[in-house]
Amino acid sequence: MKIQNMMIILFSIFLLSSCSKDEVREGIPYEIIKDDHLSYSEEEKIQKQFKVFENENQWLDFIPEIERVNPHRAENLKNLNFDFTNNHLIIVIGEFFNYCCSQISINLIYRNGNQIIVDFEESGPRELTALSQAYLLIQIQKEP
């Protein structure tokens, strides 16, 4: 009986010690600053993704991608009043749907090494007949 108890204790210690700190993800506080739709054409859509922008130049370099699918939206986003000194800007772009209107939900934003990861999901389209592609603009504070 003693050997069996020792084996259970050793196995438990082994399991607990094999868990790395990376497996415990601490969420980063965020604020959604815009929730809207980008593309209204199946031929002109942007791939489902998220991108993190550290400065205004990176953001402005991405604007032509938005302009390709929605020039009006790109013009509005080009003049975004955003503090890149203290914050990162994140765009989360959902899938393109033939029916309106999906919504993006953020499960968790966290750091994995030097990378910022956005874990998100979409509600999927409803039954309204309209082409759409949801997006979110999010801000998070830069690390001091």
Describe the overall structure.
It is a single chain. This protein is α+β, with helices and mostly antiparallel strands. The chain contains three helices and six strands; from the N terminus they run H-E-E-H-H-E-E-E-E. A hairpin with a 2-residue loop joins strand 4 and strand 5. Helix 2 runs antiparallel to helix 3. About 6% of the residues have low confidence.
Q: Which features would summarize this protein structure in a list?
A:
144 residues; alpha+beta; four-stranded antiparallel sheet; 3 helices; 6 strands
Characterize the biggest β-sheet. 4 strands, antiparallel
Low-confidence stretches: 15-22
Indicate the overall shape: flat
Number of discrete helical segments: 3
Give the helices and strands as they follow along the chain. HEEHHEEEE
Mean pLDDT: 82
- Roughly how many Å is the radius of gyration? 21 Å
Number of strands: 6
From the N-terminal CA to the C-terminal CA, the straight-line distance is: 54 Å
Helix proportion range: 25-40%
Q: Approximately what portion of the residues adopt beta-strand conformation? A: 25-35%
Protein structure class: alpha+beta
Strand order of the largest sheet: 1-6-3-2
